[in-house]
Structures are given as structure tokens and as C-alpha cells.
Design goal:
Elements (H helix, E strand, L loop, with lengths): L1 H26 L2 H17 L2 H4 L3 H18 L9 H24 L1 E7 L6 E7 H23 L12
Antiparallel strand pairs: 1-2
Length: 162
């Protein structure tokens, strides 16, 4: 019975997928994309907003990808693009959208840390992504340690001992 339900769900999902793809292609409006990209370009030129605060090399890459988008989409609709052009537009839009997030992950944060058992202070610099990974590892270790402690016998009567 469970396998039957799962197969029905799978069949329904497969039947709905082409409809979703067709709606996505129809809902893409080149004029709207161009307006959004012009707004991003004005933020870059003014040095404001998330895109204006990007490092210079990242801003240049955004501008380069926007120029390619402008060239492909100016005076055209999504339906007029061939498959490779659609893929290029999609890739460029995704990259431009991810640029501010990527920049935030690569930002270097420095802090002053005292070594254990010493009054000596060191300056430690790591990226935001490295700090997050360190924090996640520490959280995982503390959870593992807590689970191990729950399995330890706390008194003499546990574990079948008389």
C-alpha cells in the first residue's frame, strides 16, 4: 500500500514538471530583468546598496556579466532566445544574484584571542565561512559529547550490577 502511494506521488510529480517548466519559461520577462539589472548597475556606479559595497574585482565581473545580459536581452523576449542563450542568461542572472552573498562569505574578520593559560593576545583572522564552519564543528562536538554522557552509567545500580 505504501509503495502504491509513493508511486502515485512520483507519477503526479513527473506529470506536473513539464507544466512548471513551461510556466517558468512564460513568466520570464526580459524587460523586467533589464530594469532590475539597470538598478543594480546604478547601485554599483553610486557605490550604494549590496552591489555597491562589493570588492572592485567582483564589481567588474558583475558589470561584465550585465553587459552580456544587456546584449542578449535588449529588444528581445525570452522565447526569441535559443537554448544556449537561455542557459547563458540563467547562469549570468544566478551569478549576479549570488555575488553579494559570495562576497559576504569571503569577508575576513579578525579578532584578538588570548591563548589558554597565558595573558598573551594573538590576532586571529578568518573568513566568515571559516568561522561558521568552526562554530558548526564545535556545536557538533558538544552534541556528540552530550549524547555520550547520557549513555554513561551514573550510579552503581545500573547496568545490571547488584
Amino acid at each position: 500500500m505504501r509503495a502504491f502511494r509513493l508511486s502515485l506521488i512520483l507519477i503526479a510529480a513527473l506529470c506536473a514538471a513539464p507544466v512548471a517548466v513551461a510556466q517558468e519559461a512564460k513568466s520570464f520577462d526580459a524587460a523586467t530583468v533589464l530594469v532590475q539589472q539597470r538598478q543594480i548597475r546604478s547601485d554599483i556606479d553610486a557605490g550604494s546598496g549590496a552591489y555597491g559595497r562589493l570588492p572592485a574585482d567582483l564589481r567588474r565581473e558583475v558589470v561584465k556579466r550585465q553587459d552580456a545580459l544587456f546584449q542578449l536581452l535588449e529588444g528581445r523576449s525570452y522565447e526569441q532566445l535559443d537554448e544556449s542563450q537561455r542557459a547563458q542568461v540563467s547562469d549570468d542572472l544566478a551569478w549576479i544574484e549570488a555575488a553579494p552573498k559570495q562576497s559576504a562569505e569571503e569577508r575576513v574578520v579578525c579578532e584578538r584571542v588570548k591563548s589558554m593559560g597565558s595573558n598573551r593576545v594573538e590576532r586571529v583572522c578568518r573568513t566568515v565561512a571559516q568561522r561558521r564552519a568552526d562554530r558548526d564543528r564545535a556545536d557538533k562536538r558538544s552534541i556528540d559529547r552530550a549524547l555520550e554522557q547520557r549513555n554513561v552509567c551514573a550510579n552503581a545500580t545500573c547496568g545490571g550490577a547488584p
